Amino acid sequence: MHLSSLAWALALASLAVAAPSRRSNLVVHERRAQEPRDWVLTRRLDSGAVLPMRFGLAQSNMHKVEEMLMSVAHPSSPTYGQHFSMKEIVDTFAPSTETVEHVVNWLVGEGIDKKRLKLSPSKGWIEFDATAEEAEGLLDAEYHVYTHAETGAQQIGCHSYSVPEDIREHIDLIKPTVHFLHRVPTPNQLRKRSFERPSTHIKSGLKTDGSLADVPADLANCDQLITLDCLRALYSIDYTPVSTDKNTFGILEFTPQAFLQSDLDMFFANFSPSQVGTKPILISIDGGVDQTQDTGFNFNGESDLDLEYAFGLTNPQPILLLQTGDIPEGASFDNWLDAVDASFCTFEGGDDPTQDGIYPDPLPGGFDQPESCGILTPPFVISTSYGQDESSVTAAYAQRQCTEYAKLGMLGSTVLYSSGDNGVAGNGGICLDGDGNPVENGSQFNPDFPVTCPFVTAVGATQVNPGSTVDDPEGACEQVIFSGGGFSNFFAMPDYQAAAVTSFLTNHPPPFSGEQFNNSGVARGFPDLSANGANYVVAVAGEFERVFGTSCSSPVVGSMITLINDARIAAGKGPVGFINPVIYTDKFQAAFHDITTGGNQGCGTPGFTSTEGWDPVTGVGTPNFTALLPLFLELP
């Protein structure tokens, strides 16, 4: 039984105040994922500094997450495709009354007046403002100020925190505490805080005035210049959408990354003339804007790439631009998840100032409205070309976010993330030491996140090998970037990929030890599939550039799934939703081009090697759209 919002408020106000004795039976709940690199511990935080404390309550029925997702996503399930409603999901996973009571009783018993406590609208968070002295006493923690040695940027955090042993089962995580922005911020990031990094790379040498004098139009040059026609030939894409009014395709971008309409039109004029003037439908999340005050590859490259190829491959499908974060502050993965799932939304509870955009934004020109909670029905396909290192977040943070992706799959959404561009290394080619900390010349592999979450579809990168044609087998991408892939240090191997991954580890054992990667044999492997990620011709800031990255691959796969959804809708069926359990089945293997050459070097090693079947470089391979379409149409 679930209480109404009023009932929850009354329950919160009337709880008993019995609680464990102060500081008794405390156990460490979370430790910092890794020590901050290039940050200096400057001083203890002033005892009177005010911290916006958010207590993430343990959700109910978490043992049902995978079961419920598989019931609508596994092709052998009798309820395949019968996706859940948002209300069903909220009601299933809302924290129990018992959990709320235990946490409130503990806080009140520690001297926090119950009038200061608020229960978030999602029922998932309790919040209150506390002085640093109160927070340190409550959590047996020490808060410090850290300063970035080069830029002077500052952050607040603690190394670890503790809670009473009998409270631990009722709390997922507490913020702000150990979660730390480990990436070195650029001047632009300091000015426009956007923490998720795009997975795009540029290679000079292809710059024109827009006449395409240097961009041959025929397929003979696809090993050097990828265009829409190259992709159609590579993946046998020959389908024109007919159900565009019922279908939805979302591209996720983080401010200040934004497209330029003039770039889209420049691209369309050369490759898809009927689309000149086409623009995405802007969905502003937390003040997200398609800003034009800052231009150039670093501001327009990702968005231009995503939209030019997504529009071109799905013409005439409208595309939703999920623009997240305002210009002064920016946003994080949590912010966009808030927008598609009000039950996750952490307005009045939960967002972490060191990771997430906090709204309303008091900065000049900031978004001055409440956080965008549940403003958008999740699109059927969401393509995301951003990521961060798995080692930069705690296991609790990653698990709570990963559960959200499972919920999106239950609702019928396909969530795609690019797998990273540094092979087995992390952002900037950084690897880990034996303690899991990022270091120069580290030898331990550093997987990406959120692609390691088993409830998203991780997309790696391939290439048309130099001198080859679109009719020849592709190889793993080894030009400018290397396809991100490997094994999670957080997440267990899901059942749907167990046979494929175990076969790889048994028949093609990697020549690395457990000191280099998680070789337990029970870890989530990634990517799940791949698409071309090299030599894309992209119009950026008035010039054509060659672009490389798994961020090229993700919108291409998203476009193909969108076309498949269109055909299913036209046939009176629903979207495919979470595709991983389907693409790993034996029946679907013939619909993928198996990639058997190339590797993903990093961390001073050749990385993993592509081989027959699934591998941690290119997954199950690249899609053959013509073969995939009838197989997906056969499903209920």
Automatic annotation (TrEMBL):
The keyword Cytoplasm does not apply. It comes from the Eukaryota. Keywords: Calcium, Glycoprotein, Hydrolase, Metal-binding, Protease, Secreted, Serine protease, Signal, Virulence, Zymogen. One of its GO terms (biological process) is proteolysis. Ca(2+) binds at residues 594-595, 613, 615. Secreted tripeptidyl-peptidase which degrades proteins at acidic pHs and is involved in virulence. This is tripeptidyl-peptidase II.
